[in-house]
Amino acid sequence: MRYILLALLLGICPQVRSEIVYGQVGIFASGNNGEIRSNYTWGQSFTNANYISRINSIALYLNRNSASGTLSLSIYAAQSYTDSGNRTGYISTGPALSTSNSIDVSTIESSGLGLTIFTGFSSYDLTAGNRYVYQINSSNVTGAVMMNAGVPTNSLNAGQNRYLSTNGGSSYYITGDYNTLTGYVDVTAVPEPTTFILSGGALAAGVIGAYFKRRRKANQETTN
After folding, report:
1. Quick one: 150 and 211 in the same domain?
2. Helix/strand/coil (H, E, C) string of the chain?
3. pLDDT for 45-59, tens place per residue?
4. For the domain that residue 48 is a member of, what is the CATH number?
């Protein structure tokens, strides 16, 4: 019986796939182009994995400077946008699909750059292979949090862009894929219950068959 239970557990609770779908390292950005302020809307595009997934965590290299308040991140669907400089990229559209827990700015590194990790995203299934954006919620920030941006270093960032609005979303500035936010986006595959039940059932059936085969053989040997 313990083999049957083990089989069911293996079938219903398989390994969950997880991976980085956006990752970037770069050079510290200074001035307005690298500041998170209460009246700034920063965002970064990324493309989901080739399977349905949910956000595990998003990390950004930040320096709190002399700022205070809280920061969080939200996930949005992406739409194409061309700015006044004729740069085309992706910005947010529609309501927030998922939002992280808030982080107190006082916990962010004050010297150099520290990797600040945002977690606790509300559950939302990201469509396989779709493009999304994450956006920094900074309306509660007093002062300026410095952030890191740089030239893309791998294929995960190809074709992605960061964007900025300083007028509440009336217009945006697109940076292009030569200058994206540094950090990473980590996702975990969403289990498909029907697949797991079928695989669990098939595995359990095999183990049950083997179990009863052994029992019959043992009984035959006892009788003989």
Report:
1. no
2. CHHHHHHHHHHHCCCCCEEEEEEECCEECCCHHHEECCCCEEEEEEECCCCCEEEEEEEEEEECCCCECEEEEEEEEEEEEECCCCCEEEEEEEEEEEECCCEEHHHCCCCCCEEEEECCCCCCCECCCCEEEEEEECCCCECCEEEEEECCCCHHHCCCCEEEECCCCCCCEEEECCCEECEEEEEEECCCHHHHHHHHHHHHHHHHHHHHHHHHHHHHHHHC
3. 999 999 999 999 999
4. 2.60.120
